[in-house]
Amino acid sequence: MRLDTLRFRFIAEALNGNGGFRPRVVLNASDVPELSGSSHLVKYPREGDEKFARRNQVAWYANDLKSAASRFIGYLSKRTPQRGGGSDNPLLSGFVEDADWQGHNLDTFWGMFGVEAKARGCMLLLVDMPTDIGDTRADQIEARRFPYLTPIPPEAVVEYELDERGRLFMVEIGIGGGRTRGWDESRWWIKEGVEEIGGGEHNLGRCPVLAFAEGTFPAEGEFAQIADLSKRLFNLRSELDEILRAQTFGLLTYQIPADQAGNINVDDIAAQIGTNNMLIHSGNTPAFISPDDGPARVYIDVIEQLEEKIRRIGHVVEAPDRAESGVALTIRFQQLNSSLSAWARNMQDLETEVWDIVGRWLGLKADVSVTWDDDFALTDVPSELGVLEVMQGTGFSAATLAAKRRQIVSLDMGNLPDEDLATLIDSEGEPLHEGADEAAGGVGDPGDEV
After folding, report:
1. The model's pTM
2. How far is it, in rounded angstroms, from Cα 107 to Cα 92?
3. Does residue 440 form part of some domain?
4. Residue 213 maps to a domain
């Protein structure tokens, strides 16, 4: 089976801000600008090559896809996965501390992997092993000769097969220079064209490449449409710049008296008028005329609409330019929480599979349990503080107010270590000091009725 690599390559360009989103313009031998390579700007039907190249020269791209994916994965970092077991094995603990052979610990690696995967909707993950592991266990640990993770983007896949469980049975990827590298359940290989030039047995009993997707692999995720909207925005902003360049500057008009029309050389006058010249006139006063701003205003409105669509797709819960109703914000938080929970469950399944292959590489049972928190309960903390203030003013009991304060602490400081968070939450359950009830709005005794 083959993937739509062109589609995933386009999404990757939107994520990285390169390729057609960063067009390259060079000067030819006649010092005329020419487009070199691809561009995601769409050429007008009657637009010449030179004018199109100049438009590419000043085009700019705002990377909304990377911002959305990074922000989404950033929420996950507030609730780091909990792992149990394996700490007494230096190989397993070493893998957690250096998961990709580049010094990144496992949580940091998952953050980087998550941005790539969230933007596309799917990724592949190779759990590989160095060939030379040394003579002793100490040599193996010192030289970092234990499994490591390598992310593989879907646009690199040449061919793949899934087994009846939906797991990768075989996958082959391009590695450049006309070469491919592949794995199946028993061996790995390197090919140049159709000829195999290297390979061997891995004896894992399963393919060491794992497929991760928001759905069934291969699948585009919910953020993939941001790449399409980004292309449209890329063109709209360029077209708006073209309108501004062509119509922003006013045009000087000068009425020529009828009896002098035959005696004036218009070309000479146009050549003389400039910012450092004085214009002498008689009769009607010269004036500037400027084009209507209607076309530019339409473009600005359309751009703002697309930017709002991107914010909604990307689960941006802040309203940057206008107040948003509490109900609307609540719905957007619910959508974000649902998406985060689904992602965390998928990541927990992926990490469980990773530990299985790590154990197979090391010839031991990697008895490591992993739990990703899938109950994020993100909410609008300022709104919650407003609710608390209303509760204080309407005479809720001290016990109810303490419970509300504990909830707010939990929501806003969920990224703290468990013991620190528990201490803070417990402190919010302590009775208020003497006189604080009156300062808080006349709250009565804990036993008062609401």
Report:
1. 0.78
2. 14
3. yes
4. no
